[in-house]
Amino acid sequence: MASQPDKNDVVRVDFAFKRELAEKVEGDLASYCYQCGACVGDCPATTYSDGAFNPREIMLMVLYGLGDELIREGSILWDCTNCYTCHERCPQQVKPVEVIISMKNMLSDRGFAPTSAEKVIKTFEETGRTVPPNPAIDKQRAKFGLPPLPPVPMEEISKLFEPANDEGSPE
Amino acid sequence: MKKFAFFPGCLIPARHPAMEFAIRATLEKLEIEIVDLEGASCCPDPIYFKSKDKLSWLAVAARNLTLAEDLGLDIFTNCSGCTATLSETYHLLQDEELRDQVNQRLARVDREYRGTSRIRHIATLVRDEVGYEKVQESVVRPLEGLKVAIHYGCHLLKPSRIMQVDNPDNPEVMEKLVEALGASPVRHRNWYLCCGKACQDESIPNQMMHDLLETVNDEEADILGMICPTCFGQFDHGQMKIAKLFEEDFSTPPVYYFQLLAFAQGVPYENLGFERQRFKPKALQRFEEVAAG
Amino acid sequence: MSRVGVFVCHCGENIARNVKVQEVVEFSRDIPGAVVSADYPYLCSAPGQQMVIDAIEEHDLDRVVVAACSPQLHEPTFRAAAAQAGLNPYLCEMANIREHCSWVHRDAEQASAKACQTVVAAVERIKRARPLDPIEVPVTKRALVIGAGVAGIRTALDMANAGHPVVLVERQPSIGGNMSRLSETFPTLDCSQCILTPLMVQVSRHPNIELMTYSEVEEVSGYVGNFTVRIRKKPSFVRAEDCTACADCVDVCPEPGGNEFDMALSSRKAIYIPFPQAVPSVYTLDPDRCLNAKLDSPTGFRVLACVKCEEACQPNAIDFDMQPEIVEREVGTIAVATGFDLQLGDQAVQLGYRRSLDVMDGLEFERMLSASGPTGGEVRRPSDGKVPKDVVFIQCVGSRDPEHGVPYCSRICCMYTAKHALLLKHKVPDSRAFVFYMDIRAGGKGYEEFVHRAMEEERVMYIRGRVSQVIEEDGKLKVLGVDTLAGRPVEIDADMVVLAAAMEPADRGEIAGKLRIAADAHGFFKEAHPKLRPVETLTAGIFLAGTAQAPKDIPDTVSQASAAASKGMELLSQEFLQRDPSTTHVNDALCAGCFECLQVCPYQAIERREILDSEGVLLREVAWSNPAMCEGCGLCTVTCRGGYIDLEGDSDEQVFAQLGALGPLPEVLER
Question: What is the ipTM of this complex?
Answer without folding.
Answer: 0.90
